[in-house]
Amino acid sequence: MAIVHATDQTFEQEILKGVSLVDFWAAWCGPCKMIAPVLEELAAEVGDDVKIVKVDVDENQVTAAEYQIMSIPSLLLFVDGEVKAKTAGFMPKEMLIEFINDNK
């Protein structure tokens, strides 16, 4: 499944059902650029079970503020619209898979 790019307007409908890993990021953020290809790989591997959603914090400040995003990349795991876990910073794919499996 492809990565979904959500906005302030579409965010809630994207995370409402199932398991979603949301990446809060910005174009100028070095660690965000490092994790992007990892998320692409992850989407290809677990896309049927976990939706990968990206939110640009510069363009979607309402959503970033609502979830108190203070550093990026911040990754939030949602299950049926509810935050189950949160982490920040770069993570290799194996750690991301573990983070998802431990919290969904």
Topology overview:
Blueprint: E1 4-5, H1 11-15, E2 19-25, H2 30-46, E3 50-56, H3 61-66, E4 74-79, E5 82-88, H4 93-103
In short:
With 104 residues, the protein is of the alpha/beta class.
Describe this structure as you would to a colleague.
- This protein is α/β, with parallel strands linked by helices.
- 38% of the residues lie in helices and 28% in strands.
- The chain has four helices and five strands, in the order βαβαβαββα.
- It has helices at residues 11-15, 30-46, 61-66, 93-103; strands at residues 4-5, 19-25, 50-56, 74-79, 82-88.
- Strands 1-3-2-4-5 form a five-stranded mixed β-sheet.
- β2, α2 (30-46) and β3 form a beta-alpha-beta unit.
- The radius of gyration is 12 Å and the shape is globular.
